[in-house]
Amino acid sequence: MTILAIDTSNHPLGVALLDDNQVLGEFMTNLKKNHSVRIMPAIQTLMKDCERLPADLTKIVVAKGPGSYTGVRIGVTIAKTLAWSLNIPLVGISSLEVLAAGIGRYFDGYVAPLVDARRGQIYTALYQGENGKLTAVVEDQLVMVDEWALRIAAMGKPILFVGNDVPIHRAILEKTLGTQATFASITEYNPRPAELALLGKEKMGEDIHSFVPNYIRLAEAEAKWLEAKGKILNG
Amino acid sequence: MKKELLILGIETSCDETAVAIIKNGREMAANVVASQIESHKRFGGVVPEIASRHHVEQITIVIEEALQQANLTMAEIDAIAVTEGPGLVGALLIGVNAAKALAFAHNKPLVPVHHIAGHIYANRLITELKFPLLALVVSGGHTELVYMKEHGHFEVIGETRDDAAGEAYDKVARTLHMPYPGGPHIDRLAQEGNPTIPLPRAWLEEGSYDFSFSGLKSAVINAVHNAEQRGESIAPEDLAASFQASVIEVLVKKTEKAVAAYGVEQILIAGGVAANKGLRQALEHAFSKNPGIELVIPPLSLCTDNAAMIAAAGSVMFEKGIRAGLDLNAIPGLDIELYNG
Ligand SMILES: [Zn+2]
Known about the structure:
The complex is a heterodimer of chains A (235) and B (341). Helices cover 37% and strands 28% of the residues of chain A.
C-alpha cells in the first residue's frame, strides 16, 4: 500500500507518501507562491526520493477545501486525474480536519482549525480528539469570527486554535473566550500532508468523476442570480 | 518503426471542457466537447469562477469518453498536448493540471499549445496546409491576421486594438435584447434585413492590418438611442445587417490586402466567428476571383473551441520537439510568437 496525499487548498503546499505502517516522505512549504507551478514537481521529486513509481500508488488523498478556490481546484484536478488514470481510489478530506488532526488528537477539549476568509469571516469547524481519533463536533463552515467566538464560548470546553491565520483573529478570540482559549505554537500551524494521508487511509474511495471541492460558498454570480430569482418568485 | 502518432489534446481555456485524440496530425480518432453554454446563459456571458467549477466537474469524464471513442488506452498515446493560453486563467489551470497529472502518471511527453495556433490547425483536419499561408482568426476574444511561412511558425501581422469582433457581436446583440451568445442571432437577423443604416468602418492608418471594433459598437448603440429619443424605431434586422456589413467589409478587405502583399498559397479561417454565414459568403465571393489561392473554412464544429484543434497543433509542436515540464503554468495572455523559437 502506498498512499499519495496532496494539499494545495491554502498557502501551505503539501505532499506525502504513506506506506503500510510508516510515513515514507513529506514535503511542505508555507509560501505565497504558485501552486500550479510547484505541486507536480514536488510530487515527482518526493516519489523519486522515495523510489516509488506512479504505478505503485494504491490511493490518492486530497485536501478538498475549504480554502482558496483556485488552490483547491489545482489539487483536486490533479488528484482526480491521477486516481482515474491509475485506476485507484480517491478520497477527499476536509482541509480544516487536516489542520486539526496533528495536535488535536491529543488535546483534551475542542480543536478549532481556522482559515481567514476576509471581511471578518473565517472558515472553521470544531473537532474533538478521543483515543487518538478525531471526530467533527461542528462541521466546516464560513462564519463571522465574533459570532463564532460567542457560540463556542457557550460550549464551556477548552478550545485549541490552530492555523496560520490565527494571529489575525487572536485578539477577538481571546477577548471573548479568555482562559477557555489555547493557541497552538507556530510549528503546529501548517496542515501536515502525512496527517492528510492518514486521515484518508481507512476511508472508502469516492466516485472520481463527480468528485468536486468543498467550496462552502456558491460562486458570487450564482448566489446573486439565485437571490434575484427568489425575489421574482416571491415578489 | 512506429506507424502512427497519437496525440491526446486537452482544451479548457473558456467555457468548453474538451478532449480529443488525433492520429498522425490530421485524423480525428476522438473529439469530445462538454459545453457549459447553458449554465452561463443565465448570466449573459461566461463567468470565470463558474467556468472553472464546471471544468473540474467534467475533466475526467471527458478524458474517459475520448479514450473510449478512440478505443485506446493511455499507454498507446504518444504525448499530451494542452492549451497553455491565452484564456481565462482559472479555466486554463484545470486543463494544464489534468494534462500534467496524465503525463506524470503515464510517463508521457507534455506539449504546450497556444489556443490560436489550435484554431489555425483546425484547418489541417480538413486539408493539408500549404505554405506560405495567411490565417484570419475571428472569435469572441480574438481578431488577428497570422502569417505562417512554415509549420509551427506564427507571425501576427494584424490584430485588434480594442474589442475582438466576437465581443462586438455580443455587445450589439445585448443592445438588441438578444440572448447570449449573440453572434448567431445577429447573423440570422442580418440575413433578413438590409444594410441601410450608415455605420463607420475602421480602416486605421494606411497599410495597417490591425482592427478596431469599439467605434462601430458605439455607433450601433448610439443609433439605437438616438432613434429611441426621436420616438422612432430602427428595424433590428436592418441594424443587424448594417453592423454585420461593416464588420465583414473590414475583415474581408484587410484579408485581401494582406493576401496580395504576402503572396500566400492558402487562406485559413479560424475561430468561432468563422461560423458566421455572412462572413463565409463574403470571403468565398472575394476569393473566388482568385483561383490560385485556396480558401479553407472549417465546419462549424471545428470553428468553436474544441480539443481536436489543440491535438492537431500539438502534433506539429511535438514533432518540432517542443516540450513542457511538470512546472507548466497557465498563461492568460500568452504570445503566439513565443513558439517560433
Ligand atoms: Zn477559441
